From TrEMBL:
This is Thioredoxin-like protein. Pfam families: NifU. Residues 19-75 form the NIF system FeS cluster assembly NifU C-terminal domain. It comes from Haloferax elongans ATCC BAA-1513. SUPFAM superfamilies: Fe-S cluster assembly (FSCA) domain-like. GO terms for biological process: iron-sulfur cluster assembly.
């Protein structure tokens, strides 16, 4: 599948299956697509950075996209930069390292 096709599939999946990102004031953007490797990089930012379930959302994206979408074998989830950057990136980093999030599967 082409890079454009993978990007379209990824955007559609996130909008339809993890709407909490945008409903809660966050956003996602597809930063990179490597169609040969089947790798997609998704950035999240805005309110996601201060959200207590952001690490779970990131984990869900990493695990579910390759399971649900043909042509995608790996997903990298990063924090957005620039004017739409995370508002509390250090807090999100701390949360990602917490053991409590290791085995948790979010309800979406």
């Amino acid at each position: 599948m082409s890079a454009e096709g993978l990007e379209r599939q990824t955007r559609s999946y996130l909008s339809n299956n993890i709407p909490q990102i945008q409903e809660h004031g966050g956003f996602f953007e597809i930063q990179d697509v490597d169609e040969k490797a089947g790798e997609v990089t998704v950035a999240i930012g805005g309110a996601c950075s201060g959200c207590g379930i952001a690490p779970m959302t990131m984990k869900a994206i990493r695990h579910r996209l390759p399971e649900e979408l043909d042509g995608i074998s790996k997903v990298n989830v990063v924090r957005a930069g620039g004017p739409r950057a995370a508002v509390m990136p250090t807090k999100t980093e701390e949360m990602e390292e917490m053991d409590e999030y290791e085995d948790y599967s979010p309800p979406f």
